[in-house]
Predict the structure.
Amino acid sequence: MSRITMREAISQALWEEMERDPKVFILGEEVGVWGGTYAVTKGFYDHFGAERVKDTPIAENAIIGGAIGAAMTGLRPIAELMTINFAFSAMDYVVNQAPKLHYMFGGQFRVPLVIRAVGGGGRQLGATHSQTPDAVFAHFPGLKVVSPGTPEDAKGLLKTAIRSDDPVLFLEHATMYQVRGEVPEGEFLIPIGKSRVQRSGKDVTIVTYAKGLELSLKAADELAKDDVEVEIVDLRTLRPLDMEPVLESFKKTNRAVIVEEGWKSYGVGAEVSARMYEQAFDYADAPILRVAQKEVPLPYNRTLEQAALPQVPDIVAAVREVLK
Amino acid sequence: MAETINMPKLGFDMAEGTLVHWLKKVGETVNKGEVLAEIETDKATVEVESSVSGVVRALLADEGAVVPVNTPIAVVGTADEKIEEAVASRQSLVASKESEKAESGEQRVENSDLPLDGLTQSPISNPQSSIVRASPLAKKIASDRKVDLSQVRGTGPGGRIVRRDIEFAISGQQVAISEKIPSIVHRPSSVANEALALTKLRQAIARRMAESKTTVPHFYVTHEYKLDSLMEIRRQLNNALPETEKVSVNDFVVKAVALTLRQFPNLNASFQGDKLLRHGQVNVGVAVAVEGGLLTVVCKDADAKPLRQIAVEVKAMAAKAREGKVKPEEIEGSTFSISNLGMYDVENFAAIINPPEAAILAVGSARQVPIVDDGVVRPGWRMKATVSVDHRVSDGVEAARFLQALAVYLEEPVRLLV
């Protein structure tokens, strides 16, 4: 095991897969000569060349559209969106073409496409560049949506995504590139669509993913001081959604809080809690609570931005509430 | 939607009412506010009005039945809707007049094949909707374990019955939230941490004691002394002596130890690596508590000094030590030390050897204790002392014999006076 950053883990996954399979290539804004807006593809251009690390015009529909075409004709493109917010410019390709072509053409085409996109708030990028609209994309059948919370998961899941014959939206959180974690040496894959218990406890279940995992682990540490043992289930993949570890945990603790960074309305928490009520109603000993972003466009002002985003004390308070 | 009409609660202490007379029959139309029945409480007979308009679908209590307050007594709804749920509680009510049963029951839905579901009909927690507030889990456990939720007190938010309440109900215990849910109240200490610089004295104690305890292999032997004679002689002596010369128990111990050490030169010695140095003098150090630590004042040639002189010297040196005016020669040169915590009601303790000495005696309090003497219990004075010995210098048997020899002086203190 080595302790590396999320950035290094993602970079390693890309590098290894490009070395492994010449069909894999990267395209996106500033991914080549500049090395990526978040420096994930630094050094790739020099090593793999302009053919396989393609700088594109600032035209997201062209990036995703071109990637889909390449994928349909046998390549394995990794399209980078500088932020997930720019996916809205390519929305037809992201949700209406990529996920449906295999179905629409009766299985004649596959779309082995990975869209890497940076999401999340907390970096004072303003309301239009700071969103966490994960649930929007997870809404569409045919599009796998992955969002890791640890470097290990980031590497293992991204490698699996690149080998997937179906389109995968791979969401990276803008404030987590420096997060460090243990990552196994050498080749390893983590299956898409498997949730995982990241911390064991018996009193209450927190279901979360990505940035929410980081916050929830801190909240669990704080709650542990008061002898509250929190179990944290990391979804890792929003579609397909693996409820098994969630339900198993909830059947043990009977109390749950769902933590997500996006807005609460129609969000991941809404989906997960609905499934918990559908599939484990008789195990609920308290209403399931959700911790999420305030229902406002995310403010630019730092204080207001932090106030609008879910924070550790919000999670602690919600856990205490469900434990009443 | 059919509505149930409940036995009203007509007074703070009303627990039940007797259904005296039905004014409506099943199938009859009733208007909101129209009298449905007459009931009798402890104090009066009153009329029960229907809270809704509709058709009387079921009468759930027979005339003469005693019904708990807030329990459904009738169902009013439309002529054809299903009312099984509302009727379910019917069978819990007991009619006292068998003859009137048939008369009022002709259109009743037969309950025997309905699920007896106490969960949907509660007379207790919410009389308006007759819904028990319980978590799904609590309801499931109650159903599985056949617990009547109406008899369970809810301790969740808003009085919701949660798992712990059911579990306590099953175990027959009183509900106590704190036993089931971990405390989530954080109580920060109001006293901040404080870092204190070490005084020179404290530094010296720290250094010497750490050195002693880590490099000198200590062993300990404890002995209990009969102090009756000593206490009596001391009393007589002190009656005769002026205040400044009064003799303490410790002065006796100093003298006794000094004399005993003459017989045990190994314990009046210092370990010196490749040899043992037996000291020619017997200089007894006495530990004295001072501000921020302790000092050992030294009574030189204690074996040769009269008890009274020892008392005067030690008292004077101890006073000076406490005032910080002790001279270096008064705290140097001890060959054996005594630490006495007797004035603090200490039964017994073990001391750390004061290097380079070979042993130290830790002296507890002289205490009046019950003594079994030839089968008879009588009070007696006893004092325990523990010697800590450098095992490089001496062994357990020698230490035990030293303590025994010391008993000769302490238990026959006249020997100390001659």
